[in-house]
Amino acid sequence: MSLFVSFVFCxxxxxxxxxxxxxxxxxxxxxxxxxxLDYLDLEIQKGEVVGLLGPNGAGKxxxxxxxxxxxxxxxxxxxxxxxxxxxxxxxxxKRIGLVTQEVTIYENLSAYENLLFFGKLYGLxxxxxxxxxxxxxxxxxxxxxxxxxxxxxxxxxxxxxxxxCSLLHEPELIIMDExxxxxxxxxxxxxxxxxxxxxxxxxxxxxxxxxxxxEVQHISDRVYIIDQGHIIAKGTVNxxxxxxxxxxxxxxxxxxxxxxxxxxxKGISGVKEVAIENNTYQIITEAHxxxxxxxxxxxxxxxxxxxxxxxxxxxxxxxxxxxxxxRDSEV
Length: 331
Prior knowledge:
Shape: globular
Number of helices: 12
CATH superfamily of the largest domain: P-loop containing nucleotide triphosphate hydrolases
CATH architecture of the largest domain: 3-Layer(aba) Sandwich
CATH topology of the largest domain: Rossmann fold
CATH class of the largest domain: Alpha Beta
Order of helices and strands: EEEEHEEHEHHHEHEHEEHEHEEHEHH
Helix content: 25-40%
Strand content: 25-35%
Structural class: alpha/beta
């Protein structure tokens, strides 16, 4: 798929960097002077997939809306394609594709009619529009189902059509906000591989948010972790995992976990963080500290199903930095 690419060149130590999005010291306040964004810095370059992770209410949606131009910020600067984003620049908006968490297709129109409708909204006409519909249908794997009504589609197919509607105008920046919510694993894998191919083959910049950390870990070139409106960590997945390298990760599965046990376990010397997910205590302890006996003594009233250790992953980094597992924080 070809793109009409326009780049902003920023020079640092003689190296040309192709910058698509740059937020610097961005502040956004809501009613009661509540800070939604607190001196937020964020950069996205051409051709990279950037994962944006954060607990519920951390500022992810506000940041996305600010990049798109749907909300004004109180302080700081936002540049998209080298132009100031103030919500009034139509040229900037035409170069962005937004995939919302909510499926926004029309189920009583065929997939072809949906793509036709959204293509016209983006200003595509005649042969160009027909060509793009066929190209996008192939990309999303629906070329043989174009004339069916989406209400007969599976959840995964609806999600793919929803994504397709945002790709018709060949955006240079795609923002995907929870694009795999409520779909089956096969459709999820299709979308993840599709996202990686889009970035690789078209040099499109992609912002990807998800409450499935394994998705972000799988597809992201870099990850930003946001909490309380500001970035608390950033880097490649390996760079972030390096932050807790050497820590021990212990998983203790029980039948009926108790929230009050978390604080008791945290009180043990050497324990850095504790959370519960899927009836399993996730416990991060300092390197070379063995407190398993003390931890198990706190859980004597609970039926222990399994005890295991694992290598650190991105979810452990998130837990260490925010004190929460991502899926719990999204509930």
